[in-house]
Amino acid sequence: MRIDILTLFPSMMSMFFAESILARAQKKGLAEVVIHDLHDYSLTRYGSVDDYPYGGGAGMVMCVEPLANSIEALKAQRPYDEIIYTAPDGRQLDQPLCNTLSLKNNLMILCGHYKGVDERIREHFVTMEISIGDYVLSGGELAAAVISDAVVRLIPGVLGDEQSALSDSFQDGLVAPPEFTRPVDFRGWKVPDVLLSGDHKKIAQWRYEQALERTRQRRPAMLDD
Ligand code: ADE
What we know:
CATH topology of the largest domain: Alpha/beta knot
CATH superfamily of the largest domain: SPOUT methyltransferase, trefoil knot domain
Order of helices and strands: EHHEEEHEHEHEHHEEHH
Distance between the termini: 31 Å
Bound molecules: adenine
Radius of gyration: 22 Å
CATH architecture of the largest domain: 3-Layer(aba) Sandwich
Strand order of the largest sheet: 2-1-6-5-7
């Protein structure tokens, strides 16, 4: 999978992709994340890509022309499955959407900033708008990093143990059960006996019951669906 990210703050983005699972996925050749500086498409001598909003009001709007030029330059090189715009009023990111996106070959993510982009970009280029939650960030970069991380880790081969992505919270409609590792007794706080029993059927049943109970307590709405 290739992800092209268009941003006004490329240095802020590159740090996310230089570490951990995203870095490993790129080293293994399973994912390629390419960050583009929108200032490179500025039409002014000063490199600006934003302007005052028509109709007045506070804040700046990212201009249609440099954004259209940058998107079209990338589209001329490969077909994109989705052109994603990060926005608080977009469709909320969840695990099923991450699963769907992890099957794509080429994604483009446009990071909004200030008051966002000129609406004509959303109308004519963007195919999907994604929010990472009902709160307003100062820019779309963190959202683009969250989307990339949640999607890339699902690509087969990215995680060492492929099963571990399948047993994540939300993957089977339940949150994940509790996990324990050594020591078996810490300050008298003991690991549940069933996990030491070696009985895989009993362990699977216990984990299912725990996941169900946790979902009931923490995310009851998931059980309504
Ligand atoms: N940009 C600003 N806030 C955002 C959010 N909650 N999700 C995605 N992009 C955003």
